[in-house]
Amino acid sequence: MEFNDIVQQRRSIRNFKPDPVAQETLDALLSQALESPSSSNSQPFKVAIAQGEIAKQIGAELTDKYWRSTEIQRKPLIQKLIGFLTSDSMPDSDFKPILGKYPGIFQKRRVATGMGLYEVLGIDRKDTKARDEHMAKNFHFFDAPVALFFFVDPRMTHTALVDLGIFMQSLMLGATNEGLGTCAMGALGIWRKPLDKHFNIPTEYKLVCGMALGYPTDAKVNQYRPEKISLQELIIPEA
Ligand SMILES: Cc1cc2nc3c(=O)[nH]c(=O)nc-3n(C[C@H](O)[C@H](O)[C@H](O)COP(=O)(O)O)c2cc1C
After folding, report:
1. pLDDT for 16-61, tens place per residue?
2. Using a 6 Å cutoff on CB, does residue 14 contact ligand 1?
């Protein structure tokens, strides 16, 4: 594909075919993404790849934590506090705090994007149950056959996150070029324990986020194209 077509075609995919991704394809995409630049070529990231039975188990464990924590969050204050203190379903993310509300303009953009997504999905914004059910799909990676979990070594400070972001984008563009779909997923950075159970993650590496990867279906949700900011909003004017 032409580079411009790849960039335009890459959109977050939230509905996948069950078809597996060939190991050679996955290896080739990861090798290609490793051609990305990184600070002094430090490449301070690692990836855990869940497929098949492991993906199913992790998906089930994360989904269970999601439903149990959601139930606690909806309880009256005292029960909520007790739940927070006693339940093993509370977030154990490596990077804290997990953003609840985004500051200022970012919350506006977030809400606009979320509302656009619910509209495409036919979910009324006041329908908490349907919204929860959509959210739950995040935790089994929208049924994608491959779930990737990204870690960085935080001793490399902010450069580690920049480097990981560039690597992830290379991977997403490469995947698009192969007819695959991806969705970068912060939701997959909320709980770490299920991953420690299934992977030997070096202790110094911290979970940042995940990514669903697989072949996209024709579902309407996959056509969603949220608005991007204008060049005017992007570029800082001269003083
Ligand atoms: C770091 C990161 C985390 C994200 N987390 C999620 C997520 O948890 N769930 C989800 O549905 N989309 C997630 N997204 C996808 C964004 O919502 C999406 O990129 C944004 O709305 C722009 O849409 P586009 O990717 O189709 O251009 C994430 C994207 C990034 C880069």
Report:
1. 999 999 999 999 999 999 999 999 999 999 999 999 999 999 999 9
2. yes
Probe residue for ligand 1, chosen from 6, 12, 166 as the CB with the greatest number of ligand atoms within 8 Å: 12
Is ligand 1 within 6 A of the CB of residue 165?
no
Edge to edge, what strands does the sheet with 181-185 contain? 45-51, 146-152, 206-214, 181-185
Q: What's the N-to-C CA distance of the chain in angstroms?
A: 41
At 53-102, the pLDDT tens digits run 999 999 999 999 999 999 998 888 888 888 888 899 999 999 987 877 89
pLDDT of residue 139: 98
* Per-residue confidence (pLDDT) for residue 96, from 0 to 100: 86
What CATH superfamily is the domain 3-219?
A: NADH Oxidase (3.40.109.10)
Q: What one-letter code names the amino acid at 5?
A: D
Going from N- to C-terminal start, the domains of the chain cover 3-219
Q: What is the pLDDT of residue 215?
A: 98
Q: Cβ contacts of residue 137 below 8 Å, gap of 6+?
A: 14, 143
Place of tokens 């690692």: 46
| pLDDT number for residue 101 | 85
Give the helix ranges, DSSP H, for the chain. 3-9, 23-33, 52-73, 77-86, 104-121, 128-138, 157-177, 193-198, 231-234
Does the beta carbon of 72 sit less than 6 angstroms from any atom of ligand 1? no
Between CA 219 and CA 226 the distance in angstroms is 16
Ligand 1 atom 30 nearest Cα: 184
